[in-house]
Amino acid sequence: MAEKADxxxxxxxxxxxxxxxxxxLTRPEINRIIETANFTDxxxxxxxxxxxxxxVIAACRExxxxxxxxxxxxxxxKKKIIKVL
Length: 85
Fold this sequence. Notes:
The protein is 71% helix and 0% strand. The chain contains six helices and no strands. The chain has helices spanning 2-9, 15-18, 27-37, 41-51, 56-63, 67-84. α4 (41-51) crosses α6 (67-84) and α5 (56-63) crosses α6.
């Protein structure tokens, strides 16, 4: 239930942040991305939370960061994923 509320609270985030569907990736795909994307510690943590189907808002709370910071992290992670795929 909290996850649905988190998703509703994140309505003000950009469309691209809400559309990241990393939870559909397989474990080998996740591992390959982590190995090749050269993530910072925060980017890697954010990526793994999103891959575990956590909302951006839930990731914010777990990482103790603002929604704006999460939005920037999301953009950097997405950019790196696109580069390695």
